[in-house]
Automatic annotation (TrEMBL):
Pfam families: TonB_dep_Rec_b-barrel. This is TonB-dependent receptor. Residues 653-712 are annotated as: Disordered. It comes from the Bacteria. InterPro entries: Beta-barrel_TonB (IPR000531), Beta-barrel_TonB_sf (IPR036942), Plug_dom_sf (IPR037066). The keyword Metal-binding does not apply. One of its GO terms (cellular component) is cell outer membrane. Keywords: Cell outer membrane, Membrane, Receptor, Signal.
Length: 873
């Protein structure tokens, strides 16, 4: 940290110098904004309470939506303020989770969260926005991966743009508590957030605490492996240990964050974000279970034969595993524009300190000596009371990351078909990892460092314009990119790619891309400290049994760099006759070489491929597994993903029809309707799908005149459902070894093979402050073969899980808040995860459930019900 902090401070000074220089130039040469601004013809209809006498204001406006992304790449979906309200979430972090079917990359590489923009500009990271209240967001735009390179992101990330309201202030408190319906686990959270947005300036302060109780094996009736029948046990049963083994540890987490943003000039903004957090967990790994040799001549041995006596000792204490993680992050982003150029400069420093403490098995050598001398009764109920506290295996690591990145987007050339766009970015990263471990195997330490200098160029060229040159081709553009990374420990790694975006007829868009990248394993994968965890249950396919073994984890210094080659072809149809509907079909072809991966499920195939990672005793019984990361020689994957997104809105009028024609005051509120009404979401140019008069709601008068007031209520529902079919999923662990077919009997995960078919669904309904949302996932059944092929195989049955969330915003029920003022600004939510308590059924060839695949191991939490109360002040 001492080495990196001066560099970070120097970087901040550089930002300040650049800022002052830019302001001086701006004062000498004032220029109009060159930032793309999307046009948005909207109709804002603030709705009064039921008992107001005046008619709702109806104002037709042709506003400019600042912060929208204007691009040839059409968005996957757009959400306005009321769409966001219909999700019933408390923060943007929660919103991102519930819309994951639209935001997760379909490339299948687990790229995690999408790339994030704020008002069309880069930020230092999603942590700047994670705790923003959803009421502060005017609109959300979701774009496919083809847009990522235009903003200097990885080409396998989707892009999501959050557009803030101009004026907003609130203080909110949130509390939630949940329990597993099977019992044993409770989780709670409490937090507070202050948000203030004043034009381009903003402040967000957040603090939260989370806690969870331990879940023990005894609370899920986990059946333990049987003892060796040749052993003599004393008042012991395998299930006795289940009280002292946790499936989920106790957990306490605290985090505080602060974000400050300033609009330094009409063309320049600065944001600074700081986060500090801690997380502590405590789990139990069972009891000491020594085996004592008792000779036939021992005075306490009445059997007349030599015995091996197994004892479960609750002394000196249960074997514990504790981990403490402390995180500190400081980041900043400086964004600006000059004529023809949009630029950003981001800096980020992160420090993560982790300490893991694991109790070793007790040293019972002294007890055995006393038993041999005949002075200690091996059958005594208080055996072990004199044992010393266990020695600890201790692993510590401190990982520090400092990153500076600059991105500039410009239009160097104008063609008859449009502007050529060039995006250039440069990045410097300094990583360090200091790790040490002290185990029964001895003491070791390592200090790894890595510096990265990276640069990327992305060029987009329009070839056809529907209303201009080559109009017969529709709207067509191509792109190409080239990147170089210079790593201090892996040398030069390169990447390149190309693609096209073609709207060949209105409503139909074809997107195709190829990317080839080289990536290095993370510093943590190379140098994390060695950790040995005792009594870990693993299913031994070779002996067809569940056993408790020592699990070895940590880093692997011998990992290689990986090469990835991906092809994506996507077709999207947005029929003009059905507003709010989009149909998507995508084909993915992924190839990886020297892939870094977690150690796979210990099948006979895996053991043959990595024999030095598996340890057995003389009788062939599994005793330990080295589960540090490995390289696979090649991974291949081919799949198709297709589905629909459909979003519908409606207006409901009270009985009696329309009221009179009085025009009211037409001012939009910070949390007003704000977005595109029934005419549909904005398109890539930011224009509404239909004329404003089509979306403006009911007319101001009604046939025959009359003066009855009306209050139209806006409801909406949506559904998103996608089906993935996998044609090929194979892994070649090493040259000269048979390839694993993950669709037909092989596995590299602990949850069976790879399902050929999977379905994900997300949908919801919202009206007058009341909403309900459902997410569901289905995975096809798989099979994992043992030594004897089909005879020793395990069948993993298909599984479908459903999550339900229902909520009510009391502000939309004015009569309730009038009678109970404390409900003003409140929202009540109920969430049920795994609504039907679905748990995957795993059986062997005889129809039995292996101990390792008991439901309590596969899904220890099960159905979980949570109540959340949030109140804004």
């Amino acid at each position: 940290m001492k080495q990196l902090l001066p560099r970070y401070c120097a970087a901040q000074i550089a930002i300040a110098i650049a800022l002052l220089s830019h302001q001086a130039v701006a004062q000498e040469n004032p220029a109009q904004s060159d930032e793309p601004v999307a046009s948005d013809s909207t109709v804002n209809v603030p709705l009064p309470p039921d008992d107001e006498d005046e008619q709702a204001d109806i104002v037709v406006t042709g506003a400019q939506v600042r912060g929208a992304v204007v691009t040839e790449v059409p968005p996957i979906e757009e959400l306005d303020a009321q769409d966001i309200e219909s999700y019933g979430v408390a923060s943007l972090g929660e919103l991102l989770a519930v819309i994951s079917p639209q935001t997760n990359s379909g490339r299948g590489r687990g790229s995690g969260r999408p790339a994030v923009l704020l008002n069309g500009r880069r930020i230092s990271g999603f942590r700047e926005l994670a705790q923003f209240p959803p009421e502060a967001i005017k609109r959300v735009q979701i774009f496919p991966e083809e847009l990522a390179l235009s903003y200097g992101f990885r080409p396998d990330q989707r892009v999501i743009n959050f557009i803030l309201v101009d004026d907003f202030s609130s203080f909110a408190m949130d509390g939630e508590y949940g329990i597993a319906t099977q019992g044993g686990r409770g989780e709670g959270e409490i937090g507070a957030t202050y948000t203030n947005i004043d034009g381009g300036d903003r402040i967000v302060l957040d603090i939260e605490y989370q806690g969870a109780t331990a879940l023990r094996e005894s609370e899920r009736n986990i059946v333990q492996p049987e003892f060796d029948p040749s052993l003599t046990t004393v008042d012991s049963d395998p299930d006795d240990a289940s009280e002292f083994r946790t499936l989920l540890p106790t957990r306490q987490r605290f985090e505080s964050s602060a974000t400050f943003g300033w609009e330094l000039s009409p063309s320049t903004s600065l944001t600074v974000n700081g986060v500090y957090g801690t997380e502590d967990t405590i789990g139990q790994n069972g009891l000491n279970a020594p085996i004592f040799d008792v000779d036939a001549t021992n005075p306490f041995n009445t059997s007349g034969t030599d015995l091996e006596v197994l004892r479960l000792l609750n002394e000196p204490r249960t074997l514990l595993q504790q981990q403490d993680v402390e995180t500190f992050q400081l980041s900043s982003s400086l964004n600006g524009r000059r004529p023809g150029i949009l630029w950003s400069l981001t800096g980020d420093y992160e420090r993560i300190e982790t300490e893991t403490r694991i109790d070793r098995l007790a040293d019972t050598t002294g007890l055995q000596t006393a038993i041999d001398a005949g002075t200690l009764d091996p059958f005594s109920p208080v055996l072990g009371a004199g044992l010393l506290p266990p020695e600890l295996d201790i692993a510590r690591s401190v990982q520090q990351t400092f990153t500076m990145k600059g991105t500039a987007t410009m239009r160097p050339l104008t063609l008859p078909t449009g502007d050529v766009q060039l995006t250039a970015d440069g990045e410097f990263t300094d990583l360090s990892l200091s790790a040490s471990d002290r185990t029964a195997l001895g003491f070791s330490s390592s200090d790894l460092g890595r510096t990265i200098g990276a640069g990327t160029l992305n060029l987009e060229i329009p070839l056809a314009d529907r209303n201009g040159v080559n109009s017969a081709l529709g709207r067509l553009s191509i792109n190409g990119n080239l990147g170089v990374n210079e790593l201090s420990d892996f040398g030069t790694l390169t990447s390149f790619g190309y693609g096209l975006n073609w709207e060949f007829t209105p409503g139909w868009t074809l997107q195709a891309s190829f990317i080839r990248t080289e990536t290095a394993p993370t510093v943590g994968q190379l140098g994390n400290p060695l950790i040995v965890t005792p009594n870990v249950p693993i299913f031994d396919f070779t002996n067809n049994q569940t056993v408790l073994v020592d699990s070895i984890s940590g880093g692997n210094a011998d990992l290689l760099a990986e090469e990835q080659r991906d092809v994506k072809i996507g077709l999207t149809w947005r029929p003009e006759t059905i507003d709010g509907l989009s149909i998507v079909a995508e084909f993915f072809r992924n190839r990886s070489f020297d892939t870094t991966a977690a150690f796979p499920t210990l099948t006979p195939e895996v053991e043959a491929a990595f024999p030095d990672r598996v340890f057995r005793d003389a009788a062939g019984n599994l005793t330990a597994v080295d589960q540090r990361p490995v390289n696979f020689a090649r991974i291949t994957s081919d799949s198709v993903r297709y589905g629909i997104n459909y979003r519908k809105r409606w207006r409901k009028l009270p009985q009696g029809g329309f009221g009179g024609g009085r025009r009211g005051r037409g001012r939009q509120q910070g949390q007003g309707a704000g977005g595109p009404p029934q005419g549909g979401p904005t398109n890539a140019a930011g224009q509404n799908g239909g004329p404003a008069t089509q979306a403006g709601g009911p007319p101001r008068g009604r046939p025959g005149g009359g003066g009855r007031r009306f209050r139209p209520r806006i409801g909406r529902w949506n559904i998103s459902i996608f089906h993935r079919i996998r044609f090929t999923e194979t892994v070649l662990p090493a040259p000269g070894i048979a390839e694993f077919d993950l669709l037909n009997g092989s596995s590299i995960s602990g949850a069976g093979g790879v399902p050929r078919h999977s379905v994900e669904l997300e949908g919801g309904w919202f009206f007058n402050g009341v909403g309900a949302r459902v997410t569901a996932d289905f995975e096809d059944g798989t099979r994992v073969d043992g030594v004897g092929g089909g005879d020793d195989s395990l069948d993993f049955n298909p599984i479908a899980t459903v999550n339900l969330r229902a909520f009510i915003n009391f502000d939309s029920r004015p009569k309730w808040t009038e009678n109970m003022p404390f409900l003003k600004g409140a929202r009540l939510s109920v969430r049920i995860n795994n609504l039907f308590d679905a748990q995957q059924n795993v059986r062997d060839a005889l129809g039995n459930v292996p101990l390792r695949f008991q439901p309590g191991f596969v899904d220890p939490l099960g159905r979980f019900i949570e109540i959340d109360i949030r109140k804004r002040f």
